[in-house]
Design a protein that fits this description.
This protein is about 75% helix and about 0% strand. The chain has about 110 residues and is an all-alpha fold. It folds into 2 domains: about 30 residues; about 60 residues, no CATH class.
């Protein structure tokens, strides 16, 4: 009984803290001037978050660190990089990378 109550209190506390943090940006919008340095740094947030999500999936698809020729995700990512450089089109990049990954998985697995 006590453990269940503790779990629910932790969930409720986490929800309140998360709500307050997110709501503070909405409530304070226009009232506080964000310094130029902070604005410049925040422009890189989406790229940093996407990199933090994608890179571990590329380099560590299985337990253990693998940068090997049999890492199909890494091969598709390198190809997607070159597609992005050549086309400068996000749709072609994603479609080309995914098609190559699915093709490689169909052939090698």
């Amino acid at each position: 009984m006590e453990d269940t109550l503790t779990v629910w209190l932790v969930i409720a506390g986490t929800a309140v803290i998360t709500f307050c943090l997110r709501f503070s940006f909405i409530a304070l919008q226009g009232r506080i001037e964000i310094p130029q340095v902070v604005q410049r740094v925040l422009r890189y947030t989406p790229v940093a978050v996407l990199t933090a999500i994608v890179v571990p999936l590329l380099l560590n698809p299985k337990p253990g660190f693998t940068v090997a020729p049999d890492n199909l995700r890494l091969i598709a990512a390198v190809a997607a990089f070159f597609i992005a450089r050549a086309s400068r089109n996000i749709l072609f990049t994603v479609a080309g990378g995914m098609l190559l990954l699915w093709s490689l998985q169909a052939v090698f697995r």
